[in-house]
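Help needed: design a sequence for this.
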């Protein structure tokens, strides 16, 4: 159901939507032999019912709920976008017909089996007012399968196969009580694809291509995710647009809408505003968490398929690949080959922009006037209070003043419950500081005497803290329990 009026708002959102669509499509080092490029696509995957398993986190459906303020005559545009996996195999003619092979070299160019993708979309154009008080609007999406063959040489060819897919789009509208005329829209996407036969399982390891041969596919008989992905909606996300009216931000709603926003239930999706800051006509419901009005950094030279990473770092890593690894990248996927080409030919001025950018410059605030009367000074500043000194202060334990350098025996658990305390009972420690907090409680910072890293912890200021009632004094060699604060150091004991 294409509609030319969709193109403008959806094209404005395309850069961000494409970043979501291809998130995780291919990851560094961009080789098919890398394990993480065999276990692919973790975001927005709606699997077929035969593979769905709540325990494994594999689901057939997702739900978006958002609030809309349509004006009279408004039309709602809902576009579903996703990737459909397309299996690419390399076949060689050995004399008795073409058979799948792990790889083939044609005129110095290596070719490998890999799962490519084809972009898919479905559009719904509805009038929101017509949905209120009526049954859910249900639309079935059928994506046909396809099979193609690309002859590379008389004895080598690439065979591509894409399975048919079926999905259901369901839309429900509810008019919320109140004077604002707000609609709560519930949009559900469900994968209804049926597959005959059982899924198989493969063992994935570095250098092993899944499903390279029928023999490699039969290992455990469990459901295999790579095969299930070929019947899945991958990176599924939705873009909603209103021709007349606005959506309500779910991240920063107005005060009157906060209660209604809290009642929205978004399951495996995250709706945010799209378009320029302040606009409210378009929303993206993505399988990753974004902020309102997300944008792709203008410095980014192209898709690295990992928006959570830093482009500069990925480009530098890509340039460190060996010639053989680059050869495998080019054989893996055309998008990987294009990424490698951008990295190798990137002009210095473009690469420099990847190092960082300054945005939203603001004038520096004027210097504050001196606080003559001390009204902005905190009521207690331990750094300025000469009456306290952790290095020389003491606390009385069993009638003995204990301070820095005193040796104590630990009896933890008086004020807290910590499973680690069982390892500290009756251990001997040395007090490093006596601390007083703003509530008037005293704490002793100690290091364990039998800890070989005690001196390092003292240098780093990393201590264990105990209350006075959790400690008893250990007499020195002369049997004198009193030790002057600061009179014994860890170096002297050593």
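Sure. Designed sequence:
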């Amino acid at each position: 159901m294409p509609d030319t009026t969709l193109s403008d708002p959806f094209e404005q959102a395309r850069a961000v939507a494409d970043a979501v669509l291809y998130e995780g499509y291919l990851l560094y080092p961009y080789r098919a032999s890398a394990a993480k490029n065999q276990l692919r696509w973790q975001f927005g995957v709606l699997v077929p019912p035969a593979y769905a398993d709540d325990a494994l986190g594999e689901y057939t459906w997702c739900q978006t709920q958002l609030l809309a303020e349509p004006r009279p005559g408004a039309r709602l545009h809902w576009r579903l976008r996703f990737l459909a996996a397309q299996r690419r195999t390399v076949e060689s003619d050995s004399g008795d017909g073409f058979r799948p092979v792990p790889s083939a070299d044609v005129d110095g160019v290596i070719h490998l089996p890999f799962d490519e993708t084809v972009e898919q979309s479905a559009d719904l154009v509805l009038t929101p007012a017509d949905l209120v008080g009526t049954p859910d609007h249900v639309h079935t999406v059928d994506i046909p399968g396809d099979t193609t063959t690309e002859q590379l040489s008389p004895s080598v060819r690439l065979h591509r196969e894409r399975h048919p897919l079926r999905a259901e789009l369901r839309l429900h509208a509810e008019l919320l009580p109140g004077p604002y005329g707000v609609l709560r829209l519930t949009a559900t996407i469900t994968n209804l694809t049926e597959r005959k036969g059982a899924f198989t399982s493969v063992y994935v390891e570095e250098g092993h291509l899944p499903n390279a041969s029928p023999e490699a596919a039969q290992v455990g008989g469990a459901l295999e995710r790579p095969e299930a992905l070929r019947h899945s909606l991958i990176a599924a996300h939705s873009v909603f647009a209103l021709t007349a009216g606005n959506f309500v931000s779910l991240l920063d709603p107005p005060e009157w809408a906060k209660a209604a926003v809290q009642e929205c239930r978004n399951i495996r999706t995250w709706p945010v505003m799209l378009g320029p800051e302040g606009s409210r006509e378009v929303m993206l419901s993505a399988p990753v968490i974004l902020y309102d009005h997300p944008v792709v950094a203008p410095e980014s030279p192209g898709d690295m398929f990992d928006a959570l990473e830093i482009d500069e770092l990925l480009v530098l890593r890509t340039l460190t690949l060996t010639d053989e690894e680059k050869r495998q990248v080019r054989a893996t996927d055309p998008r990987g080959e294009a990424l490698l080409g951008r990295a190798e030919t990137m002009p210095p001025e473009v690469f420099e922009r990847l190092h960082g950018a300054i945005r939203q410059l603001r004038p520096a605030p004027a210097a504050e006037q001196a606080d003559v009367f001390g009204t902005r000074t905190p009521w207690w500043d331990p750094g300025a209070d000469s009456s306290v000194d952790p290095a020389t202060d003491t606390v009385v334990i069993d009638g003995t003043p204990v301070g820095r350098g005193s040796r104590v025996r630990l009896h933890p658990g008086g004020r807290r419950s910590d499973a680690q305390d069982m390892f500290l009972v009756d251990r001997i420690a040395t007090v490093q500081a006596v601390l007083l907090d703003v509530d008037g409680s005293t704490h002793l910072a100690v290091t364990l005497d039998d800890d070989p890293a005690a001196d390092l912890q003292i240098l780093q200021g990393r201590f264990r803290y105990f209350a006075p009632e959790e400690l008893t004094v250990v007499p020195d060699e002369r049997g004198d329990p009193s030790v002057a604060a600061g009179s014994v150091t860890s170096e002297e004991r050593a």
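The chain has two domains: 4-353, 395-493.
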